Amino acid sequence: MNNDEMNLKLDEIMGLPQEELRHRLIEAMGRIDFLMTHDMQLQMNNVRYGAKVLSRLVETKEIKDYNVCFFNIRNMAGINAIAGRDAGTAVMKDFVGGIEFFLSGQETLFRMGGDNFTVVIKREKMEQFLKMIKGTKILVPGTEGEYVLVSAVAGIYECDERTSVDDAMDNAHDTMNIAKFARHTSYLYFNKEISSIIMNIKRVENVFPEALKNGEFEAYYQPKVDIENNKLTGAEALCRWVRPDGVLPPGAFISVLERSRRICKLDMYMLERVCRNLRSWIDAGISVVPISTNFSRMNLKTPDIVPSIIHVIDDYHIPHDLVSIEVTETKEDEEFEKLKDFVEELLSDGIKVSVDDFGTGYSSMTTIRDIHFSEMKIDRSFFLYNDETEDRNLVMVRHVIKMAEELSMSCIAEGAESLEHIALLKSMGCRFVQGYFYDRPLPENEFIKRLKEPYYR
Which pTM value belongs to this model? Predict the structure, then answer.
């Protein structure tokens, strides 16, 4: 519409009787309010609408009868890849529509954005809601009876009379993020323990950039040992955060950093630290062993990650056979393909790759069938058996070791803590171990001593 047309339209409107003009103005404001409080893609309420509902419940103190549940639909990218983006959107709409169907009164469901939603729901309906998010079969539009199983992960905040809108929304969201990284659960309730975890997450995230800049992260080296001759054959570089008030173990911060791309910065930092140490040891005439470093699968989203790794190694003039990369398994199809490309590219440059924590993932056999890892690390959980599971565990370990050998993979057992473990592994043909029986992770100065005295007595 040009200026002339706009002026004519304004003249037309202004010439209307006052009552008609008032009616049209109210109608226009209603449309604007609707657009501001609704998600037009899914034809449902948006976060602005949800905040209004929550504010009203808080003001009337009725909020005490409700739970606020922030949920994220799992693997939406995979559903879109299988069904197509338009069909994927329709599947998402059907899934949340099923939840919305049994809401009533002031209960409401609203979209936060993307595949994130919040439901404000009466406490007595929680069982039905939790059942739905565990998994619901949804028909894919445009197909002849093809269904996808759609599930979600949720964080739940139980409201009381003192609850504020920010408390409910923020705590439900933060709890969902924790549930998302927890194993074997589709939901978590906010409580004191979760609150403590959330506080730690925020503290770590806030201080991490400055800590990285200040070089507070150090490599500790846990030896890998050949049990045939008790000789040091390699080591895994494990990250320790050295703070003014003490040394933090990986469990205190790694899982926090893995929730974002911060972990990628730490992984590259640790690789650089390992290469720098290797270079200094070699220059000092010390006989070195191959060192492995851990890389989170989050790095698979980084463009040119392999060239970046090779650049760091070559920048210190480290022979490629002295550095290896450890990664864990994945169950996501899209991520699996990226992992496969990542491993193949590293192998083509002479960098060995280990599959870490083998046996704890969801797709172990597929992983080692389709991806040609150099080394398999058997998870320590195989050794934590009781009398009822001992026979089954031993059968599994024996066959895993044999399978690795036939696939031309070296096999190393993690968590060997006793002489009985060593004897058992030796009897089953596992030659290499890593664990407290030989050594804990060692700071650089102690590891140098071990390099100079590579035999254990």
Answer: 0.76
